[in-house]
Structure prediction request, 209 residues.
Amino acid sequence: MRGVLLALEGVDRCGKTTQAARLAETLRQRGHTVETWRFPDRTTATGKLLDAYLSRAAEMDGRVAHLLFSANRWEKADQLLRTLQRGVHVLLDRYAYSGVAFSAAVNQLDIDWCRATERGLPAPDRVFYLDVSPAAAAARGGYGGERYESVPLQEQVRRVFLEHLYDAGRWHVVPADGSVEQVHQQLLPLVLECVEAAEHHNTPVGTLW
Ligand code: DGP
Prediction:
């Protein structure tokens, strides 16, 4: 049986990384094999350029940044498919949805143009959008000064996520203003349902979009 591909999405500081780690820990305790993958992956060649861009050490055109973020996902796509084929469940901490939402919102790029570079990537079986207001997210320990960390920009990003990318068949919007444990308790049954359903029908991994 292949692993399931699950994506956690949301604005900056919505709790994706914390929830991905909590979910992985709980799934492992229940005997599942799980990996968490984070995008952008700042360790690769494109990731190093993106790290410089995000920390404002380098400037680049918004389209160039979008293509690099997209390349950063594409360069891991084969490895992602191979991991799923080994029966490993993968929790993605951001994915192509962030790619479109951030690039379209912060650089005022055409949404269809942004979506086009993601077309053909492995499609998550489920997307969990952790919904927190950008003002509440900013209040959580504050922003670290990276390029997109401002409340008005994040409001625009949230609008693209929910108005243009939300897909009723694949997305769960999970209220994420609560404590780490409260959000985990909301996510866990939804994630377990996907993992357990996959054990009964071995459908091939889909592709975006
Ligand atoms: P993180 O490492 O999760 O804090 O993400 C870094 C920042 O990069 C965050 O503000 C979201 C943004 N980001 C992630 N993926 C993309 C993308 O594909 N395009 C653009 N423009 N921004 C992205």
About this structure: The first helix runs from residue 16 to 29.
